[in-house]
């Protein structure tokens, strides 16, 4: 499953893994993170999403996203564009109310 998801990520810019509670989505995300890290891919696993509006240091949603990643992952290099970067968000339903994320990041992906 992790290998197949890695293949999908190589061809798709956005992948939504959904399922009922306790079906293994969090475990799959962590296994994917570990697998991609071994492949020298830059992976950011976010278990508690913070609205991008809290990071309006930049002029657009992308700058806010990278400000958030820098705050959440100090010591990691975060630069745009970053080819093959993966952002895995656990409990992504928390993103549904983040207008800045949907109107800038997802719309452009």
Description:
It is a single chain. The chain is mostly helical and 109 residues long. The protein has one domain (2-108). It contains four helices and two strands. The protein starts with a helix and ends with a helix. The model has no long low-confidence stretch (mean pLDDT 83).
Task: Please estimate the helix content.
Answer: 40-55%
Mean pLDDT: 83
Distance between the termini: 24 Å
From the alpha carbons, calculate the radius of gyration and give it in angstroms. Answer: 14 Å
What is the string of helix and strand elements?
HHEHEH
For the largest beta-sheet, the strand count, sense and barrel status come to: 2 strands, parallel
Class per helix and strand makeup: mainly alpha
**Given the C-alpha coordinates, what overall shape results?**
globular
**Continuous helix count:** 4
Low-confidence stretches: none
How large is the share of residues in beta strands? 5-15%
**Beta strands, count:** 2
| Number of domain modules | 1
Going across the major beta sheet, what is the strand order? 1-2
Keywords: ATP-binding, Nucleotide-binding
GO molecular function: ATP binding
InterPro entries: KTI12/PSTK, P-loop_NTPase
Protein name: ATPase AAA-type core domain-containing protein
């Amino acid at each position: 499953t992790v290998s197949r998801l890695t293949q999908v990520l190589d061809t798709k810019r956005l992948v939504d893994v959904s399922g009922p509670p306790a079906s293994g989505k969090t475990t799959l995300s962590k296994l994917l993170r570990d697998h991609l890290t071994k492949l020298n891919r830059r992976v950011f696993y976010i278990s508690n999403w913070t609205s991008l509006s809290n990071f309006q240091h930049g002029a657009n949603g992308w700058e806010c996203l990278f400000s958030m990643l820098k705050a959440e992952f100090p010591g990691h290099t975060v630069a745009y564009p970053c080819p093959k970067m993966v952002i895995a968000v656990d409990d992504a339903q928390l993103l549904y109310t983040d207008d800045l994320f949907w109107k800038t990041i997802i719309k452009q992906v």
